[in-house]
Amino acid sequence: MVSNCIGIDVSKASINVHIQKNSKDFIFENSLKGFKSLFSKLKKIYKKEIENIIFIFEPTGSYSEALRQFCSEKEIKCFIINPKQFSNYAKALGEEVKNDVNDARVLSKALHLSKKGQVKVPLFNGDVEHIKELMSFYKFLCQFLLQYNTIKNLKVFMND
């Protein structure tokens, strides 16, 4: 078992964390404050080995972006596992997933599923992230305008 793996289950308000080295479970805020608290705790546990830790988590859209950015800034290696791959892995182990604490525990054991080059410090570019947000808003706006115009045309059609 690799003791430098940190399993993290990310949700909207919190992150459930399982630390392999001491088999402890923790809950932190899903925020910069929470990530700093986690990192502080990990520095106390791992001391000089802190540069060898690996965070393992699933990408959960906007909920995991702040964690990814934090890892990029602190140069923490991550294995960001595909959710389907994680689900299949948990089933193969006979583990019940969709329980945040258990998910973090299972994630902490999933390093051997990584392929060459998948364990790395995540890249984060603020400009790219901003463009992604703008594109997302643009798509939302286009969908909204399509629905609005459809309703508007239906009203005109119904009144004729």
Write the layout of secondary structure elements.
Elements: E1 5-10, E2 14-19, E3 24-29, H1 32-46, E4 54-57, H2 62-74, E5 77-80, H3 83-93, H4 100-107, E6 119-120, H5 126-159
Parallel strand pairs: 1-4, 4-5
Antiparallel strand pairs: 1-2, 2-3, 5-6
How would you describe what is shown here?
The protein has 160 residues and is α/β, with parallel strands linked by helices. It folds into 2 domains: 5-123, Nucleotidyltransferase, domain 5; 125-160. Helices cover 51% and strands 18% of the residues. It contains 5 helices and 6 strands, in the order E-E-E-H-E-H-E-H-H-E-H. The chain has helices at 32-46, 62-74, 83-93, 100-107, 126-159, and strands at 5-10, 14-19, 24-29, 54-57, 77-80, 119-120. The chain has a 6-stranded mixed sheet with strand order 3-2-1-4-5-6. Helix 2 (62-74) links the parallel strand 4 and strand 5. The longest helix has 34 residues, at 126-159. It is elongated. The mean pLDDT is 92.
How many beta strands in the DSSP annotation? 6
Number of domains: 2
- Compute the number of helices: 5
Relative strand content: 15-25%
> CATH topology of the largest domain, anyone?
Nucleotidyltransferase, domain 5
Order of helices and strands: EEEHEHEHHEH
CATH class identity of the largest domain: Alpha Beta
- Rg, rounded, reads 20 Å
Residue ranges: pLDDT <50 for 5 or more in a row?
none
Name the structural class. alpha/beta
User: What's the CATH architecture name of the largest domain?
Assistant: 2-Layer Sandwich
Spatial separation of the terminal alpha carbons: 72 Å
Percent of residues in helices comes to 40-55%
